[in-house]
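Same chain as my last thread, 328 residues:
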Amino acid sequence: MAENTSILQMTEVAALYDKQFKKDNFNLEPKSLYDPINVTMANSGKRIRPILLLMATDLFGGSVYDGLNAAFAVEVFHNFTLVHDDIMDEAHLRRGKPTVYKEHGINKAILVGDAMHLHAHRYLLKVPANCFSDVLNVFNKAAIEIIEGQQMDMDFEERLDVTVNEYLKMIEFKTSVLLAAALQMGAIIGGASNSEHEKIYQFGLNLGLSFQIKDDYLDAFGEGDKVGKRIGGDILRNKKTFLLITALNDADEAQRARLLTLFDEKDEDKKVNGVLELYAELKIKEKSEAKIEELYQKSLESLQSIRVKEEYKEPLKVMAKAVHERDY
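reply #2:
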């Protein structure tokens, strides 16, 4: 691990990343394939994973320029998973704009996702040779776990007995591991020891769990204009979220019967309002907020255990707080 002399702030890292990767980075042929990719990447949201990767590289004294291609690979891969998720969910909106699936149909969306997956690996090949093997192993492990997590999510659609622990394992694989892997990849590129990049992985894993439950929470209790999609979308699809699973597990017999009846309700407003009424009775909002806070604090404990100067951790604490407190 190199001696760090100056720590970059989140905004500085984001600016470096944005300067390197333009909105039309995939200026390739055929346009019919690559234009939707450019649109997807331009609408790629908060860029949390690549920014965390670069911040981890910087934390351990590495050059963020060595991490740029790995950061872009992670962001392309993340957006590939969303393109295919939207197909499976038959989703029409992503971050307030039409999905590739909605705009171009299922066949184009499959091809767009496949191309993005492979281009992610193309950028990963540009990682410095001295750490390429370790970075690739972390990336591939996360990629496999994400696919396993997606299958778990689909399996849960057929079950009413999913436990909170099963749900947490599913979102660990489907959502958290890529965020954690991004941090670990950055730490490897930055020259961290094995014990240190395991600690930063755990920081990312718990932050990612908190992040996903916050997504569940915002779907029910957020503001549609800020979230970028219709509030109650998960409710309308009977999606097994932390909120719904907690409600099913905590409900008494009468409440559970009401909830199951609402699964088949065709009037969308009546369904959403009916489920939200049950959530209020069962204090699901408060229970979700408590779990989000618990996981956030666990993530900070892992960050605190990393053996670098305290002031060097401050940008990551600021980033984690921004993720934790977001309302979109």
